[in-house]
Amino acid sequence: MSDNVDWQNTELPCVSVIVPVYNVERYFHQCMNSLMYQTLKNIEIILVDDGSPDNCSAMCDAYAEQDKRVKVVHQQNSGAGTARNTGMDIARGEYLYFMDGDDWLDLNAMNILYDRAKRTDAEVVVFSHNEYDNQTGKTSQRGKFGRKLCRSIFSISDVRGGLLDIVKPAVWNKFYLLSFVKEKNIRFQDLDSCNDVYFSLFSLIIAMRIICVNYPLITWRKNQDDGITSKRGESWRGLFAAFDKLTYDLTGRFESNDTIGFYQKYIKCCLYEYRFVPAGERDLFVRMAKERLPYKYFCDMSRLIAVENDVVRKFFRYTRAKLKGFISVLFPLQTKKGLS
Questions:
Q1: pLDDT tens sequence across 212-244
Q2: For residue 183, is it within any domain?
Q3: Alpha carbon distance 120, 150 (integer Å)
Q4: DSSP states along 161-214
Q5: Which of 110, 182, 194, 226 could form a disulfide with 238 if both were Cys (CB 3.0 to 4.6 A apart)?
């Protein structure tokens, strides 16, 4: 491992922004421009080059030459979870923010989040985000919160599971007090997929001081061909590894995990992940869920999967019928031969 970290710089930054960098050359300039031109200037930007096969390694070094706030660590490819842990180990900021190299921030994001965290003494700040569809070019806001969650500090027990239900289990929509994360020894898992699920949900569940910001401060890019989601079906077991660790570490913390909406979130994550599971592995996925979920929640999940599968089947039947009718109009003599 090599790095260019200036250990002689004694002025502590307000925020350490950690960016795992891997195969994002096409989008990296947009990401870095949104970081380097933040209105809050006293930040450090830690780029962890995770053995990226494209030109990202050289780009990271170029940014470090351009801006002294940029620190670079080069490491062999170990995954985003390990890369984030590497960055966290050298972070010096009062607060901590994790960003992906293909997303971009509102230029006031760090200023807004730091100000809200300082004013409320928050351990975790949760905020809204925009979703940008890389295929359609459309942007939509996600993760809107009620006024009560944005006005005063709360813990997960105060909202009876409502927060887990609406918050995406990622880290790029949250802002953390570094001392809280270190004191609780919260780390990312070394998983090919879902490596931030444990960190995101566990920190949210155990934090005693949470505040929400009802403004989209980051734009999350989805449906990029070279992104991790495009290969998600190859590593779906990461979801169960994340929730196995969550289940173990939450044992005894609450009278029942039902009260914080834990199993409802588990089901929601299962349903999302199920869409990426290859057809030949879906029975195994369901069996693994059955081994872990309480019976009533497994039944809920199975029913929702059945509904989703039925909707897909009906869609294809409807589409085929429409297509058959359309072709019969254009080629009336060929219909019987071509679609029967």
A1: 999 999 999 988 766 544 456 668 999 999 999
A2: no
A3: 11
A4: THHHHHS-S-STTEEEEHHHHHHTT------SSSTTHHHHHHHHHH-S-EEEEE
A5: 194
Sequence-distant (≥ 6) Cβ neighbours of residue 290 within 8 angstroms = 298
Residues 237 and 316 in one domain: no
Residues 233 and 122 in one domain: yes
Helices 262-274 and 197-206: crossing angle in degrees, nearest 10, is 160
pTM: predicted TM-score of the whole model, two decimal places: 0.85
Average pLDDT over residues 26-36: 97
What CA–CA distance (Å, rounded) separates 171 from 115?
19
Q: Domain total for the chain?
A: 3
Distance of alpha carbon 177 from alpha carbon 184, whole angstroms: 11
Give the pLDDT confidence of 298-338 residue by residue, as tens digits.
998 888 888 767 554 554 455 555 555 555 555 555 545 45
For residue 267, pLDDT over 50 is answered with yes
> In terms of residue numbers, what domain contains 204?
107-174+190-257
Note whether 214 and 150 are within 8 A (CB): yes
Beta bridge partners of 70: 45
